[in-house]
Write a structure and sequence with these properties.
Blueprint lengths: L7 E6 L5 H13 L3 E6 L9 H8 L20 H8 L2 E7 L1 H9 L5 H6 L5 E6 L3 H4 L2 H12 L3 E2 L3 E4 L5 E5 L3 H14 L7 E6 L4 E2 L5 E2 L6 H12 L3 E6 L11 E4 L3 H12 L4 E4 L6 E3 L21 E3 L3 H8 L5 E8 L3 H11 L4 E6 L11 E2 L2 E4 L2 E4 L3 E2 H26 L5
Parallel strand pairs: 1-2, 1-3, 3-4, 4-5, 8-11, 8-13, 11-12, 13-16, 16-17
Antiparallel strand pairs: 6-7, 9-10, 14-15, 17-19, 18-21, 19-20
């Protein structure tokens, strides 16, 4: 299945010897039916001429931030017109310099001024010597680009322009084309679907300044919301208190307590095709909440006693009201008997899948940028290696779409839609 036909793609070329691969990339995208434009840095023009790309794209190359008089579009700045025109942008090769500029939002040339205005997906294919690739700031900048929603196409290991052998070679054009194609195919896979996701912790107040909470950062739930958005879904994110910004293109509802989260979920769940309960909802909440701050010196015997009562089990209530064809996914964070607990939870809460992750392993669970999970369904378990939470979100949705396909096939058979 080709997702490239008719897609409008900007290719960014920066000052690397790998700029010649950009010609191959441009030709292949045109062959696959894409409409392309090319933006180059001044350094890139020392490796390959803009005329080459203008000939392939049948469009003037953006090389200068300030086009000649009369060349600007009538309805606004030229770089905004380019950014709104494109479905995606791929910067290949992307030098360490350009990656650093994008990480800090420095828009000082034609390429970066387009990239920072893009609404469509931006792909980055790094190319540099292995010593530059191993420089500590590079990893930090790449992590920043990923946090912005850009997709990094990893460098390959091989012979470099310096004569050394190591990591840093730009991914081959075929690999880049396949990545772009997969993105466009995936971006329509959940079109016309509504996905509801809960994320983050809940805070249960004791008094106006104290609360009972947990260490959830919301990163996993937010990564899931972004993945669902990138697959074309309408996404509603019900978020507990986190320091994360509202993701673009997603309806975000901010709540604080378990009761508030339950109310928001009730309002949205009936219309959702897929519900993912990734939030770490408090199991208990204080019976009485003091209107005033409790003062330590006024406590009897220097002791504070807080009587707790169970919060509503949101996942259980979602399972009880789940309609035919709706996919319900829960999370299980455990310190022991992980898979057994996940299976019990899946049955008790009427879930289609439980994402089980260990609470006591480095690089997994709360706060970390990575996770190591096992996807538990009625048909078995699929253990995933440690990966970024965004990569984990990709794998979770791959499994959800498999489950959704099974649900559709079952419904078709029940209604006689298949012979």
């Amino acid at each position: 299945m080709s997702g490239l036909n008719g897609k409008k793609i900007i290719i960014g070329i920066t000052g690397s010897i790998a700029a010649y691969k950009g010609v191959i990339l441009a030709r292949e995208l045109v062959r696959r039916g894409s409409v392309i434009r090319v933006a180059m840095t001044d350094a890139a023009s020392h490796f390959i001429t803009p005329l080459t790309f203008a000939s392939i794209s049948k469009h003037p190359v953006a090389l200068n931030m300030y086009p000649p008089a009369g060349a600007e579009p009538a309805n606004g700045s030229w770089h905004i017109e380019w950014a709104l025109w494109a479905d995606a942008m791929v910067i290949a090769p992307a030098t360490a310099s350009t990656i650093a500029k994008l990480a800090v939002g420095l828009s000082d040339n034609a390429l970066t001024v387009i990239a920072t205005a893009m609404r469509g997906k931006v792909f980055v294919a790094p190319a540099m010597d292995s010593d530059m690739h191993n420089y500590p700031a590079f990893d930090r900048n790449i992590a920043t680009l990923r946090s912005f929603g850009m997709e990094v196409i990893p460098s390959e290991r091989g012979e470099l322009a310096s004569g050394l052998v190591g990591v840093g070679r730009m991914a081959e054009p075929d690999a880049i084309v396949n990545t772009l194609n997969a993105h466009f195919v995936r971006s329509a896979s959940l079109a016309d679907r509504t996905v509801l996701i809960t994320a983050g912790p809940t805070y249960e107040p004791i008094d106006p300044v104290r609360f009972i909470g947990n260490h959830s950062s919301g990163k996993m739930g937010y990564a899931l919301a972004e993945e669902a958005r990138d697959r074309g879904a309408r996404v509603i994110l019900v978020s507990g208190p986190t320091s994360l910004p509202d993701p673009s293109g997603i309806t975000t509802i901010r709540v604080s307590t378990a009761a508030e989260m339950g109310t928001a979920v009730d309002l949205c769940s009936d219309d959702a095709d897929i519900v993912i309960a990734a939030a770490a909802v408090a199991d208990f909440t204080p019976v009485d909440v003091s209107r005033d701050k409790l003062k330590r010196r006024e406590l009897a015997g220097d002791e504070l006693r807080v009587t707790l009562q169970p919060t509503r089990d949101i996942l259980r209530s979602l399972g009880e009201r789940k309609r035919a064809g709706q996919i319900l996914v829960g999370f299980a964070l455990e310190t022991s008997a992980l898979i057994e607990s996940a299976r019990e939870k899946m049955v008790e809460k009427n879930c289609d899948m439980i994402v089980a992750n260990p609470a006591n392993e480095p690089g997994a669970g709360f706060s970390a940028d990575t996770n190591r999970v096992t996807l538990v369904t009625a048909s078995g378990e699929r253990e995933l290696p440690s990966m970024t939470k965004r990569a984990c979100a990709f794998e979770i949705f791959e499994r959800i779409e498999e489950l959704a396909s099974g649900e559709r096939r079952t419904a078709a058979v029940e209604h006689g839609w298949y012979g």
